[in-house]
Amino acid sequence: MNILAIESSCDDTSIAVLKKNNVLSNVISSQTIHSNFGGIVPELASRAHINNISSLTATSLKIAELDIESVNAIAVTSEPGLLGSLIVGSSFAKGLSLKYNLPLIPINHIEGHIYSGCLEDDSLEFPFISLVVSGGHTSLFLVESYTEYSIIGMTKDDAAGEAFDKIAKLMGLGYPGGPVIDRLAKEGNPTEYDFPRSMINSDDFDFSFSGLKTSVRYFIQKNFEFPLEEKNKQNLAASVQSAIVDVLIHKTYKAAKKHKVKNIVIGGGVSANSLLRKSFLDLESKGFKIVLPKMEYCIDNAAMIGFLAIKKIEHTSNKFKDLTFKVSSRPMRSK
């Protein structure tokens, strides 16, 4: 089976081509214009998707050395995300499906991240704990199969990536802030400042990062003047990063212990953070198998959408001929 996958949930346009579980191409176009506004502007994101999606599809097919007539099915992100961005991707996919009479598989973006580790590691066995951590989502899942999982924890307010970006803005670092904080933290002292680890000792697996953001805001106002000195930036970055990573590691470890699961998968944009990756790999000494997707599968990408679509075809009887599905911006909710 050859599958063409389309991802346009936020500000990255991505087109991938997969042959069974093999990724033949995975083209990603990131939108840089949003850095001028300190955050993503939905209307600009939609326009960029419109401008990019057709040419990126042609490029992805060329890299895969296939033409559209060789494609057996199409996959597209249908939720959650920016509504306008999702509409661009789904409308393009529906058009291709109608023109070439191809099945169309709508895929939940977060589910794509949940299973992204399976794309690279065929030895990964169910069940596993999946931490999806990004700019818009921070959730823990107990994953039983390709068709069955449950939400066991999620953020009560800001997502971890959102906290990184907002704190970076407070520090005058611009947008997106997560990668900048990661870079600065390598030269800083993570114990220089003691910021709160919200909900780290709660009895559940939920998260909260808005209090950290508020704490950093007042700390900067009280102790520093702008522009911040480079060493202060480094120490702040390292201390903030440590506070966020400590909570993510502790909650995930506790969830794996409670559910007696030895496999842990990390997905989402924040899974590219160097300290988070190192800290999770340290858990291997405790007997856990840690799966960290390579960088191009951490960010929003169409390869994970296509991979999950293939699994849905394999594990369900759905023919995926219904094109009446609607996109949705609503995030996942715990049951």
Verbal overview:
It is built from eleven helices and ten strands. The mean pLDDT is 95. A hairpin with a 2-residue loop joins strand 2 (12-19) and strand 3 (22-30). Helix 8 runs parallel beside helix 9 (274-282). The protein has helices at 42-64, 83-100, 109-114, 116-120, 160-170, 178-185, 210-223, 230-258, 274-282, 295-298, 302-315, and strands at residues 2-7, 12-19, 22-30, 73-79, 104-108, 128-133, 138-143, 149-154, 263-267, 289-291. It is α/β, with parallel strands linked by helices. Strands 3-2-1-4-5 form a five-stranded mixed β-sheet, with helices on both faces. A five-stranded mixed β-sheet has the order 8-7-6-9-10. It has two domains: 2-113 and 298-315, Nucleotidyltransferase, domain 5; 125-295, Nucleotidyltransferase, domain 5.
Secondary-structure content class: alpha/beta
DSSP helix fraction? 40-55%
Task: Give the overall pLDDT as a whole number.
Answer: 95
Architecture (CATH level 2) name of the largest domain: 2-Layer Sandwich
Count of separate DSSP helical elements: 11
Strand content: 15-25%
Q: Helix and strand string, N-terminal first?
A: EEEHEHEHHEEEHHHHEHEHH
CATH class of the largest domain: Alpha Beta
Rg for CA atoms: 20 Å
Estimate nothing, just give the exact number of structural domains: 2
CATH superfamily grouping of the largest domain: ATPase, nucleotide binding domain
Record field, number of beta strands: 10
Shape descriptor: globular
The first-to-last residue Cα distance is 34 Å
